[in-house]
Every structure is written in structure tokens, then in C-alpha cells.
Amino acid sequence: MADQSLQLRLTQKLALSPQLQQAIRLLQLNRIELREYIQDALDSNPLLERDESDAASNQDSGDADREARAGESEIDPVEERDNADWDVARPSEDQWTERSSFDSYSMESQIADTSTDSLREHLLWQVNLSHFSPVDTEIATAIIYGLDDDGFLPDSIQDIRASLAPELLVGEDEVLAVLHRVQRMEPVGVATRDAAECILVQLSVLPADTPARELALRIARDFLDLFARHDYDELRRSTRASEESLAQALDLIQSLEPRPGARYDNRHDEYLIPDVYVTQADSEWRVTLNPENEPGLRLNNYYIDLLRKSGEKDAKYLRGRLQEARWLMSSLEMRNRTLLRVSQAIVDSQQDFLEQGDIAMKPLVLRDIADSVGVHESTVSRATTRKYMLTPRGLYELKYFFSSHVRTNHGGTVSATSVKAHLQILLQNEPQKHPLSDQDLSALLHQTGIRAARRTVAKYRESLGIGSSSERRRLYKRKPTGI
Questions:
Q1: Residue 103 shares a structural domain with residue 69
Q2: Does the reported pTM lie above 0.70?
Q3: What's the average model confidence in pLDDT over 66-89?
Q4: In terms of CB atoms within 10 Å, which end of the chain has fewer, N or C?
Q5: How many domains does the chain have?
Q6: Which domain holds residue 40?
């Protein structure tokens, strides 16, 4: 029998206070979700009430809070708020256009689902019925909330990890394992990165004895571009398959759904309301919060008086609700302060864009704003997700102002958004009889000082939904004269 012994081990563990967890959760909510959250708090906490007036009610709230402090000896948890640190550590949809082989889909696959459930609700329902661990449930929920209307997942594994931190620290392998499980939910192929991966996932779940399944997998994995161009002769030569086998494989691929969210009516009319406003005064750009972001909450004077008069049992309950109310009001104040600071830092970095447009957009990453504001990158990610800024140039999601960079001939950098703007100008003025190839575009950009390889130009061109030079040439030929 092995000897038993006692060991002393020192480990580090991250612990977040309930107030800090609430503040982090509130920061990532958009306006509609925040409104619902506040309404739930009002319904469940009798010490909270809406502040119907402006200055007068603010004064009442301050008086009520001072009275409550006088009536109890507990330490106010809101004292920590000033020192609280919130931080711890698809391809273009035009890929399947008129040149795609999915034109012959049955009408059944193109009709939107008439049920009231959206794709998100349908997937969350499946997660609740599946045997997910609590951690896997949080990961799956983050993945589902990151889907676009077509059911694709535009976020990377790193983005999903960042959205879960700091309250949930997981590895990339954990996120990837949950992602594979979500991709095999109904509709199969959801949460994939592009149509090609979606087709591969749908083929992989078919029975192994499905006719032409292996050939279809090979085509989807290696020759999907030939399939999309209807280049069947080259496809037959590349796969060395018989005409009958190739026809079966193509029919199988055509029977699949390249956009897993198409059956669900996710495109409801949505009216975007800005969270922050940007105005220029005396050559200075200023950011102000939308007044509707202010929750207008105050403490209920009646229950404050009742707290002083109540017995020990009732007083314990009311003190708990009072603490929750103060935490919520403090967290809302912290949310607005962080959103304002992050927005102002973005505006300070992108003043050239506000004055000149996309072509003057500067490279910007989360770390730049995080260092400027003094918070963690995950905090900036939460503060900019599904939050909108109204500028003189239009309404933009805060994430729009972040962009990767391309090197210039002089050793500097230029943002990907600016490169795309340059590309659009070049393509708008290209000769219709001789459209510019990606190599030509790369050379022209190089003359302006932008070092963009042919592959980079092709990637940006596809993200703009613009076809290749051969596709544009065919498009120009089909155009009636005079247009």
C-alpha cells in the first residue's frame, strides 16, 4: 500500500466578484438586450424603479441612497467600482452567383421557414436538449450568437475565445470540439466558415454507402471552383471519373444547401439606433452617448423607509435587494463610461476617415484602443460588438473602424479598408474591353505606394463582391450599349 502524505501546493486562480461579472455581462449587451435586462431587474427587485423625470429624480435617487446608508452599517460594494478592472487577461456571398451550379435547386429548399423560431432559437433549443457540459454550453452559445443570417460563422476561433474571457478561459481545442458538434446540428452545416466547408460537413454526415459520396467529397474539397464555373470537362479530367459517376456526384452536391440558414426567416426589418453620436465642433471631434442609453433608474423611497422599520428577517431580504440595485446602477454607469471612452479613442484614431472617407482609414486593432483606454482587449471587443456610431458619414458598427494593414513602399502601413477603396476606384475606371487582372491591379497599387500581392488583391476583390477579370469581361459584353 502506498504511503499517504500531505502536500502544500500554491496555485493561482482567477476569481471575479458578482458585481464585476455583472458589469462584464452588461458591457456586451446591445441596446435591445440591455433594455430587456433592465426590465427583468425592475420586475424582480422592488427597490428599483424607473426615473421618470430628469434632474429632480436624480436628486431623489441620491437622497434615497444617502438615507439607506444612514439606516444600515454594511459596507457599500459600489466603493470598489472606481478600482474595478474589467479585464483579465466567409468568403464573398457572390461565390455562389449565376455561375454557380445551385441554380437548379428545388423550390422547396429556397422557401424560408414559416415557423416563428429563428435559426438562433432553433439551435439554442437543440443545445438545451443535448448533453453539453456547462462550459461547452457557454461555448456553443457564443458560437450561435456569432452566426450571420446565412448561418455562417465569420468569427475566428480566437475571436470566440476572446468573447468568453475573462470569466471563462478555454483553449482553442475546446472551442473547436464544440464547433464541430454545432456544425452537425440541424440544419447540418451551420456555423461553417464558407459554402465549401458547409458542403463538406453535409457530405460527411451522409451514410457511407451513399452513391458517389466519396467523389462528391473530393470535388467539394479540391475542385469546387471548377464546379462553380461549370467547367465539367476539366473537372472530369482532374477527377478521372466516369461521366456517369461524375453526374451522380454533381447531383448529390446540388441536392445540398450551401447556405444553412436559408430555411429560416432571419432577415427581419431592423432599425438601427446609434449608441454614440460623433459631432465636430471647432475642428474637434467629440463623442456623446445616446441619451436613451441612460437607464433612468433610482431607488424606491418607500422600500428604503421600510428597510429602516422592518424586522431582522425582512431587513435581510431588503438589504440584499438594495445591494443588487446599487450594483446594477453602478454597472450601468461603468458600461456607459467604458463605451464612451472606447468610442472617443476610436474617433481620435480615425479622424482622417471622418474627414476624407474610406480611402483615409488607418490600420487599427483592438490592442491599440485597449492600450489607449487602459483596458484589456476583450473589454474593447465587448464594447464594440453590436454597438453603433452615428457620424457625419453615416451609421457604422464600432467594429467597422478596426482593420488589418498592408505594407507600403516606404515602410509604413495602410489599412485594408483603404486598399479596398483604392481597388474600387481602379475597377470603376478600368477599360471595359480590357478589364484589369489581379496582377495589373497589384502593379497599379504598387505605383501608389501600396505593396499588395496578387493573392491579397484577389482576396480584397472577392470580399467586395467583384468578379474576376474574365467574369467582368463577360458582364461588360452582356451590357446593352449606352449603359
A1: no
A2: no
A3: 39
A4: N
A5: 3
A6: 19-83+273-399
